[in-house]
Amino acid sequence: MYRLLPLIIFMFLITGCKDNTPVKTSDRQTIKQDVSEPDSTNVVIDTLSVNTTENEPEVVKEKTTILVIQCSNGYNYSGGGYDFNPLLEKELRKIDDFEIVEFSYKKLMGSIYQGVYDKKYAKPIMEKIDADIYIMTRFADDFLERRGKATNWGYELKLLNTKTMEQKISIGADSMESYEELQENITKNIDKLVKDIQILSTKK
Fold first, then answer.
1. Is the pTM of this model over 0.90?
2. Other C-beta atoms within 10 Å of 46: how many?
3. Of 23, 167, 173, 182, which one's alpha carbon is 20 to 30 angstroms from that of 87?
4. Beta strands 133-139 and 64-68: pairing type?
5. Integer angstrom CA distances of residue 186 from 3, 93, 139, 166, 193
6. Using CA atoms, how far apart are residues 75 and 189, in angstroms rounded to an integer?
7. Contacts of 110 (CB under 8 A, 6+ apart)
8. Which tens digits make up the pLDDT trace of 70-103?
9. Which value, to the nearest 10 degrees, does the dihedral of the CA atoms of residues 70, 102, 131, 89 take?
């Protein structure tokens, strides 16, 4: 009997230290809910953030439309192969903010469109072809008057805002020795022309 006493005491100690209190069903559900359910507040914020970014409208900048009018005194020059208007159109097409409108002879049938270098003569063209800016061009001298001259190649450009009817002389040069030099001068000064167009086109 005395030999079994230590074993009985040991068994009693083990049984007494063990917590047999049952876990309530509601406690189990609370613990499970805390672990499995995400924070709904964070989910809403994330969703709003994503939707706001996706729904932002893309801003498309409107281009300035430009019409290069037939050279006012270029008829006889063009017969000799001298026409710098295509060069102007080529250089201006490189500007992303510009859109070159075609000078359509078909649309202008029955209208007076030759010799235009001032706003008071541009109205017949404006009735047929719409553009924000008109570029009017001319050579420095009449072709027949400059026959036999070794120098005095020149040109001038005038801009017209068709909405406000404000006009402005832009680039030009005179006393050049060749048509090639005239073309080079246009290319060299194209940045000034672009700036003049941008300033004039902002006036409404």
1. no
2. 10
3. 167
4. parallel
5. 121, 14, 12, 23, 9
6. 24
7. none
8. 999 999 899 889 999 999 999 999 999 999 999 9
9. -70
